[in-house]
Design brief:
heterodimer, A: alpha/beta, Rossmann fold, six-stranded mixed beta sheet, four-stranded antiparallel beta sheet, disordered N terminus, B: alpha/beta, nine-stranded parallel beta sheet, 9 strands
Amino acid sequence: MSTQDEATDGTQRDGTFGDYGGQYVPEVLMPAVEELTDAYERYVLGNEDGFVDDFRARIREFGGRPTPLSHAENLSAQYGTDVYLKREDLLHGGAHKLNNALGQVLLAKYMGKERIVAETGAGQHGTATAMACAYLDMPCEIYMGRTDVNRQRPNVFRMRLHDADVNPVTVGSGTLKEAINETMRDWATNVEDTHYVIGSIVGPHPFPSMVRDFQAIISEELREQARDQIGRLPEAVVACAGGGSNTMGAFGAFVGSASLPGHPEGTHEPAPEVDLLAVEAGGSSLGVDEDEGYAPNSASLSTGTEGVLHGARTKLLQTDDGQIVESHSVSAGLDYAGVGPELAHLVDEGRVQPVNVDDDAALEAFHRLSREEGIIPALETSHAVAYLEHYEGDGPVVVNVSGRGDKDLDTVIEESAAKDIDGAPTMEVFEE
Amino acid sequence: MSDASDATRGRSDLAAAFDDEPALVSYVAAGDPSPAATERYVEALVEGGTDVVELGLPFSEPVAEGTTIQNAIKRALDAGMTPDVYLDLVDRLDVDVPIVCMTYYNLIYQFGEEPGPEEFVAAAAEAGISGFVVPDLPVDESGPLAEACREHGLDLVFIVAPTTTEERLERMLDRTTGFVYVQGRLGTTGARDEVSDDTPDALARLRDTDAPKAVGFGISSGEQAREVVASGADGVIVGSAYVDIVAEGAEAGDPTSEVADRLRALADELKTGAVAGVPEPEHK
């Protein structure tokens, strides 16, 4: 590859972030990965054929960008510090996922690909990909673990309504990890005409960089809005972290690695004075149960160890032997044993601070934001909101509201009753 | 690699296994359904004419495998297979053919105290492994493992796919030792009824390669083995067809000896087919 040079933004164009990243995929996929790397460099980084202009226009017109930066007045009064919410819940589809899905499906069109496959956990990425494929007229197949299909029915209906095929994956625990494995197998079989739209900043290079670039439109907007509305950059940005796509979306422009051309002047300069907090799912407790091959959490940034999974070297929840364990979170979208290699690197560098909150705290925060601000957040987002209870900085803090919580209502009502969660309303309005 | 340690281990070396006639490379997943059964199965495969044993070390995320081998890996992991148990099993195996370890990179990388491949390669060499096939490690990322293999006199086998470009092929052949693993079709492992149309083309472009060429992915019968060798292969690699036999035996609760008999019979059929495929004028 002619891409070993260091890019102007400081990331290595061979796809490594310090010790992390790389391209650990079967040989059958490597030519496609190389082809994609070339397309990423030409269309995304180089705006060839006006790709980026096209993307920016479509994410405005179809996606509804820019999303607002809302001042959370009641939470601000409660915490004695200004809390702002970056409203990705208002993006079309109800989550940040469309930024990436639209970018990749559009790129696949520019590359002349004829078919899209994608994995999905909670169904948000699958839904966003199905939406983008309907909009851009591309055939679409989604792989989703059997367990997730059953617990995320509304999103399965949405994907089907957009005419995407949904393939349940029955092996293993039937969740995101297995869905990624199966999508990679499909890609290996149909690699010549198919593009794999990975849903997070994970996988082999160029996916972690490319997904970050599409998502970092969040932090690019946020910087402009902070300047206009607050008159300064925020003291801190808080985002939940599973695989890490909304996280790097919210952090990318502040870190300085975001590389999508056409951004407003000055919005991609590194801003080391802004604290970046990645809130992971603490689940029911931290650590890995070696004997059971299970982690009752998804805190790979806080507690994981270095290893190789799904195409990249990164931090993982694994046994001492290197078997990947089943993770857990009340939030399906954070329930993953790995994390994006760039986030792992930024944590090692001390640029991003990993923290975590447990299932119960996330449920409490779900109710708090719903009650106090009139915004029902996704359970993923609720982890970021929950961290405000521990936030000690002064100055304005921005929480990235990565998605809305309509998809989580059944889980939240059930779990809140079972666990007697503080601040949960009673649901005694229904007849018995 | 014919250094002194090969002789003292009493094993033929990997490339030499292809010298006399077309080689049969046989895969099973270690520990499926138990380490003791695997020992018997490997012996039976060798008795049936296997020239190289490809012994899978099960990893929880086998992205290159079809359903058959995914299920085998799950059975083995559920029965307690670990890298340590695997190495003990290799150490105990009493067969006179080279054993190749087929696994995914994270297990090699995590083994021992320090991250990196060195410790596992050393332990594998000690246990009697002759080389590695690592399906999620493309040549681009293979530097550290290749170096550790060189240091311990082990071979590193790369998989050439139908999609592999000429430029990538050259880089892979530069690093290939032992044999070239020719992936006969797109997709994942799994038994198929027909030889893929891609196979003759794949072999044709490797015609000038010195290293022996073995074709895998989808071969399950003696007739297919004959066809592949007739197309120019120096060997055939078979996995899922054996694993199907192991799975049926495990499901029916058949005695290990009966399953071993069936494996021996299939190996014999495959080896006979492979030998029958040698084009007459080029018979060595």
